[in-house]
């Protein structure tokens, strides 16, 4: 196993440090270290280069490992809820949704319909926020410095809604096991409707800057191609999978939390390159807006919390439940031994599995493309390392 | 001695041609001053315009609306510690920024701000310009080498490869503009910068609009090549922070780095001035041959030579421009927050508004008004190019290096060749 | 237009050219040699200017100093320098070298002394303004064939370089 504290030499990549000229040796080892403006967190990528072309990569992760899953073994189910937000800190609400639903399944409880609607609205807002952040940083990596400011400015509006709802902007801890704790505040529907009207032309603005921009197209078309079969072999999910042509979205395939009541489409791509992944995510943003508009029209009245015992002691057993997080399939595998603390919680983070595809996508491409491909996979190191 | 100095004022040639070294030195000093002011203005403008394009405000604290920011930046850079890497080659390390700055500034010897407002008018003006720009490339290579580190070296080699590739496209575009100067009665063209603008005046059209669309294509090729020459977005891969190769000026700090910075902006100004001189009519105002009906103007306000209404209207434009700027500053002063701590800034901005208005008034006085025309139009056109530079930086993503080189060799070069041949053919036929 | 301070500039440029030339061959570091060569070329360009040949001076700067020297520097920097730096700059046959140089010098002096009448007058006939036009007329008119042959030679060189550098055609 490679020791991340040693620089240079990676074990399974068979390399020799070059000694002579730049011209006659073929291979060069380059280290995109944990501190790098474009690796979106503390990711270390060791590149084996032949001139400018990439011959192989090795990702060294673990710089953000906080032992979340081990902590879970020493916390009760309710106490563990806030920890879940900190994994994919960009899309904290989805993490919370997945966890709460998994535990609810374990306890055989159903959240009331009103709670489900609120959950859908907040989760789709979160998908929008995550994709906006992705768009800004991805464009920045490729060199377009302006969309970052636009997307972050518009993402502020979403964060304001979160702050009004549950008091936090980023790590929201919005849901509880059995439903939601907070009732929607006065003016929640009006705010959300205003936001939808506000942001729809903004997405057109982002597209205007990038979609037909010749330089953007040249930088992203044909870069980091991943075929549908490869995606399935590697276990890649989310927009990456859909951009490779596979029509698989857990919101349609295995609907959860009121998604079955809304009409929306699943955008897919054809070529599986960076450009398609960009188009798919932008289309997903629009579909999210569609879902939000439908949901906010018809929030049913009723309780927001199901009847949940004060002390949660799920029966002995195990469960795997997954949702469609903005980055892919986020799954929770919970093993309960009958006590108040879980025996084991294993999180299936989408970024961790998607990151494995980096090597396949980047072989044969140039060094400047590595940055673009890491951006297009949309990884969050908090999730990869947990 | 005194008539040596004042005698020049009556001549109608540049100091270099008149052999008058005092005035040549004065012009050189004025150019230094002008470039320094322009670069400081560019620093402020770039940050403000980029910020406004990104829906934020940019520097607002250092002076009213950040107007003193360039001064603060220069002070900071001057006071920084001068770090030289231990294993660096000291002579070359010292020489590299010098070469880049000298190359960038020397171009301004031939750039004409008016029919006699150039330091000298060489017969080979354009050739001289091309040659001196290529000397700048040497400075960049030396900078990367002197740092004695793998990444700056690769960055500088990439940078210089890019600059050399686009120099060819630039040269071809320049040649097609020079070719257009020969389409006159005598059939003789000229390489001198003043001669090129005078040819545009004689042919009653800016070369950008000659043989439409050939002039525009040539201008387009030059405009793209000049952005690549100066290593600016979208061709700034060698300097980008998010790439692996760190760029040739990584190891430079403080004053040496500011020399590179200065050289970059000066080079931008220089190539924009070349583009303006070659295609956009240099110091000529728009519609240079449209004089309009003859009007009578009261004696004091009359032009030196009797000209028409359109001339009079255009001659008021510099003053009007300054009044508009003064109005902006005035409105800014009014909109400042009414906080006691903002009093000094408010006062400063108000003073600036008054100064601008004062300069505008001075520009209305006939002797000044007549002399300032050429310089004003030249500077205005160069300012448009500077704004375009900043606009490109805010809008476009970066080209990957191989795409950049492909563009230079496979697209710009054939386009330049094509427009040259087409210009020659059309010129002979027409 | 009268030239200004001709002897001063001539001596200055010649001194620069000579000193830089000596530096080219005596520097251990090849990059220093290349930079000294650049200064030699620039002083030569100045000397061309003094001979009323501005076009040649301009072309010298563009092509030689700005193009060829850039390529020299590229190659020097891409090839590892450490081995070369340790070599001594003067080989063991320096006596023979000095003898050969002296013989060449004597030859030059003899040629100049005997054939002085063949060289043109010191005053230059062509006005400076027409230098470019004159060169163009000769190049594309009288000496068209050598020009085309030279460009063909350059084409061959380019194709050869590309063929040698590419891994696959």
Strand content of chain B: under 5%
Please give the largest β-sheet of chain B: none
Contiguous helical run count of chain C: 7
Biggest β-sheet description of chain C? none
Count of helical regions of chain B: 15
Question: What does this protein look like?
Answer:
- The complex is a heterotrimer of chains A (386), B (430) and C (169).
- Chain A is an alpha+beta fold.
- Chain A has 2 domains: 63 residues, no CATH class; 318 residues, Cytochrome-c3 Hydrogenase, chain B.
- In chain A, a hairpin with a 2-residue loop joins strand 6 and strand 7.
- The two termini of chain A are 20 Å apart.
- The N terminus of chain A is likely disordered.
- Chain B is built from 15 helices and no strands.
- Chain C has 7 helices and no strands.
- The longest helix of chain C is centred in the middle third of the chain and has 25 residues.
- The interface between B and C is medium-sized, with 32 and 29 residues.
Kindly summarize this structure in a few lines.
The complex is a heterotrimer of chains A (386), B (430) and C (169). With 386 residues, chain A is of the alpha+beta class.
Layout of helices and strands, plus pairs?
The complex is a heterotrimer of chains A (386), B (430) and C (169).
Chain A: E1 28-32, E2 44-50, E3 53-60, H1 68-72, H2 77-85, H3 92-107, H4 113-142, H5 146-166, E4 175-176, E5 179-180, H6 188-210, H7 214-220, H8 228-234, H9 239-243, H10 250-253, H11 274-297, E6 317-325, E7 328-336, E8 344-348, H12 350-355, H13 358-362, H14 367-377, H15 381-385
Antiparallel strand pairs in A: 1-2, 2-3, 4-5, 6-7, 7-8
Helix pairs in contact in A: 2-3, 3-4, 4-5, 4-11, 4-14, 5-6, 6-11
Chain B: H1 2-7, H2 15-18, H3 21-53, H4 69-79, H5 90-106, H6 125-146, H7 150-180, H8 193-202, H9 214-229, H10 255-279, H11 309-315, H12 317-334, H13 343-362, H14 366-395, H15 401-429
Chain C: H1 6-26, H2 30-50, H3 54-78, H4 82-85, H5 94-114, H6 131-142, H7 144-165
